[in-house]
Give the backbone structure.
Amino acid sequence: MKQLPMSRPKIGIALGAGVARGWTHIGVLKTLNRAGIDADIVSGTSIGALVGGCHAAGKLEPLEEFARSLTRRRMLSLLDFRFRSSGLIGDTKLTELMREHLTDIRIEDLEKRFVGVATELTTGHELWLHHGNLIQAIRASYSLPGVFSPIAVDGRWLIDGALVNPVPVSVARALGARVVIAVNLNNDPFDPAARRRAHEASFPGYLQSAAPVMPEDDLFRELGEQMDEEMEEQAEEAKAAESEML
């Protein structure tokens, strides 16, 4: 009796949240690629959605180049300060950076199945973003409360998916993956090293761990100067607009 060839099971990769530690995902994906392991399904939360979305779109190399080029000073130049109740930072500059490489890409047109996980602000429900604009899905998934403002998608306000599903294994399973490679960037919260990593996941820690070049005092001095400059520019714009109206 002739034996039928065995088909390869669908492989999924779930890329977890972890702020600046999420650049680790790039190395994981490159290592898997060298080993000949190519995931059919990619699910990501927060920075995992950013890396996973770029991977699914075939744009991982530009993202790696960006990550390697980061210094604290450059991090500050990318931040677009806007003082609002919903978030400390407006991320117009970060979004523009993504548009350079992900312009007009829709999730349903990707060769790999991709899902970004977000949280609905009003209900706390978990939402799976598996169609529509890729940049919008990524942006919603990393909208860390208090840092980035929420984003509206299909009439719903969405924030960081780490609040509901920090390592989206369940998403990859639901999409048909028989084997799921999970990349968890966080460990036991009671472990001293894990507590240290939790600090790195905060906004100040994010800036420190993303680009360890500048001493902490200099970092926050630079941050303050950047915010002062932004406020002065906004005041000048308002004054100019008032003069034009007179």
Summary: The chain has a mean pLDDT of 79. The chain has ten helices and ten strands.
